[in-house]
Amino acid sequence: MAKPKLVLYVDVVSPFAYLAFHICYTSPVFKGCDVTYVPVFLGGIMKATGNRPPLQIKNKGEWIGKERLRWAKSFNIPMAEGIPPGFPANTIKVQRALTLVGILHPQRLAETLAAVFHASFAEQKEVHTPESLTPIFEKIFGEEGTKEILTKSTSDEVKQRLTAKTNEALAEGSFGLPWYVATNAEGEKECYWGFDHIAQVTDHLGLERPGSDSVSGTGWRAML
């Protein structure tokens, strides 16, 4: 029987993509699943689908600010009460850099995403410019490796790759992030949107969730 597979499309501008990534990356629940993380450009998805940023919708901006903190507390995920500088920033440059990491160092993409997400939402640091990314990347790739990534991330190849992956997410039905494409052991595929549907993702994949007495158990119970 094939191992269940999960493709998670993310953009580091989204606090809910951060929550979904953190659970998929750190929780034992997903250890029995092959997870692929795909950087995409949320701005492109929003434009293509005619969607509006939450902060432009009356009352929704305030609501998501509360909601992200509730879920972070329930799942014990590091999340600052305030928002990152310039939020919501244009993340095209950081998403291109992450796309190149996936090309040059695919085995380190998850680690890099974790570092960028944490800097943004747990430490309230700017992450959307090459200057702000440099110290984060240098801890992983060193000075020369970071220079290579940030320089080559402006190439046509990388731009086209990010566009292609964004279009891939759109073709899978995405209108926002996080977007999951989950294929269970029987080969049955389903797509899901939003952090609050991650329990449905685990159900489809046949993954066992923690009991209510575990550190993250209260979070899973809140989704019932």
UniProtKB/TrEMBL annotation:
GO terms classed as biological process: glutathione metabolic process
UniProt EC number: 2.5.1.18
InterPro entries, per database record: DSBA-like_thioredoxin_dom, GST_Kappa/NadH, HCCAis_GSTk, Thioredoxin-like_sf
Keywords, alphabetical: Transferase
Reaction(s) the record says it catalyses: RX + glutathione = an S-substituted glutathione + a halide anion + H(+)
Domain of life from the UniProt record: Eukaryota
GO molecular function: glutathione peroxidase activity; glutathione transferase activity
Gene3D superfamilies: Glutaredoxin
Keyword Transferase: yes
Family: Belongs to the GST superfamily. Kappa family.
Protein name per the record: Glutathione S-transferase kappa
Organism of origin: Letharia columbiana
